[in-house]
Amino acid sequence: MSLANFLQQLDRLEAEAASTLGEVADSEALETARVRFMGAKKGLLKDIQKLLGSVEVADKPAAGKRLNEVKGAIQTAFDEAKQRLDSGTTERQGPQPDPTLPGTPLRLGHLHPVTQTIEHLKEIMGRMGFTTAEGPEVEDPWHNFVALNIPEDHPARDPLDNFYLATAGATSGLEGSRLMRSQTSTVQIRVMETTPPPVRIISLGRVYRPDAPDATHFPMFHQMEGLYVATDVTMANLKTVLRIFANNYLGGDVEIRFRPSFFPFTEPSVEVDFLWNDNWIEFGGAGMVDPAVLASVGYDPESVSGFAFGLGVERLCMRRHGITDIRDLFSGDLRFLKQF
Ligand code: PHE
C-alpha cells in the first residue's frame, strides 16, 4: 500500500472517531464507539495497524509515526467523552453563553389598521345600542340580490360586475349560482329572516367587486352595514346616528351631507358624504328600508319602518389616519403597517 493511501485512511478514521466520540450521549454509546474504533480484535485502529505491514519499508517510519498520533488522538477523544459523561453534564463545548448580555428584543406584532378600525367602529356603534351580526362572504343570489329588491334583469347582477363562482351542476345561466358578496346588505336580510323586529345591528366584513385597483378602489374591501328597524324609525334618526358616529370616529364636528340617490332596497335613498380637506367624499349609501324588502323577510311594512346604511371601512380608516392610497393597506409592507 502507498504511503499516501495509508495516511488518507488514518485521516478519515481520526475525523470519524472525533465526531462520533464528541457526540456520544450515554455510556452505552461510548462503549459501542470504543469497540468500533479501539477494539482489540476487530477495532478499526487494529485494521489499519495490520495494513502497516504492506507499506514500503522506506515509508514505514512516517506511517508508524502518524499511526501513533491517531491512536493518541482517539484515546484522548475517548477520555474526554468519558469524563463528560461521568461529570453528568452534556454542556456544549466551546465558549459558554454570557447571561449578562442584553437579550434580543422581541418584535411584537399588532392588529392591522383595518382590523383596528373595525374594533373601533364596533365600540362606537355598540354605545348606541347596535350589536354586531355576521354573514357569509360566499352568498346566494337571494341574499345578495332578490331579497334586496334587485330583480333578475338589474345591471347590478351582471357577471362582469360580480365574482360569480362556478357551480357544479348549475343548470342554466346564473341559476343556483353563488358569488362573493358585493355588499354587506346581505346581512340585513339574514338578520331579519331570523329575528323579529325590533332589530338594531351593524355588520362588518369583506365585500368583493371586480374593480381595477387605484388610490380609492380595491377588488376586496370592507363595509360597515347598519340596520335599525322598529316602530316609527325615521330619516332624522338615520342622520343623527350617522352624525354622532362621524363625530365620534373622526373627532370634532364633521360635516356630513346626504345626496339624493337610488338603491333598490331603500326608499328614499341617499349617498353619504363627509367633508375631507374641503372636498365632499362619498363614504357610502343609506336610506329607509324599502317596504318590499321588509315584506320579503316577513315583516309588516305597515307597522315597522327602518333605516339602513353601508359605509366603506377603508375610507373611514384612511380619512382618520390621513392615508391617501388604499393599496398601501393591502401591500403587506411592514414599514407602512408598523406606523399604526
Ligand atoms: N349596499 C350599498 C352599497 O354597497 C350601500 C347601502 C347600504 C345603501 C344600506 C343603502 C342602504 O353600495
Summarize the structure.
By secondary structure, this protein is α+β, with helices and mostly antiparallel strands.
Sheet-strand content, in percent, reads 15-25%
Strand order of the largest sheet: 1-5-6-10-9-8-7
CATH topology of the largest domain: BirA Bifunctional Protein, domain 2
Nearest-angstrom radius of gyration?
Answer: 38 Å
List low-confidence stretches: none
Report the CATH architecture of the largest domain.
Answer: 2-Layer Sandwich
Biggest beta sheet attributes: 7 strands, mixed
Averaged pLDDT: 92
Question: Quick one: overall form?
Answer: elongated
Helix content: 40-55%
**Small-molecule components bound:** phenylalanine
> What is the number of helical segments per DSSP (H or I, 4+ residues)?
12
- How widely separated are the two ends? 74 Å
Task: Describe the protein.
- This protein is an alpha+beta fold and 340 residues long.
- The chain has two domains: 3-86, Methane Monooxygenase Hydroxylase, Chain G, domain 1, CATH 1.20.58; 113-337, BirA Bifunctional Protein, domain 2, CATH 3.30.930.10.
- It has helices at residues 3-23, 27-38, 44-51, 60-86, 113-127, 141-144, 185-194, 235-250, 291-296, 313-321, 326-329, 334-337; strands spanning 131-132, 138-139, 164-165, 178-180, 199-208, 220-230, 256-263, 266-276, 279-289, 305-312.
- The strands form two sheets. It has a seven-stranded mixed sheet with strand order 1-5-6-10-9-8-7, with helices on both faces. The protein has a three-stranded antiparallel sheet with strand order 2-4-3.
- A hairpin with a 2-residue loop joins strand 7 (256-263) and strand 8 (266-276).
- Helix 1 packs antiparallel against helix 3 (44-51) and helix 1 (3-23) runs parallel beside helix 4.
- The mean pLDDT is 92.
- Residues 183, 185, 263, 266, 284-287, 308-310 line the site of phenylalanine.
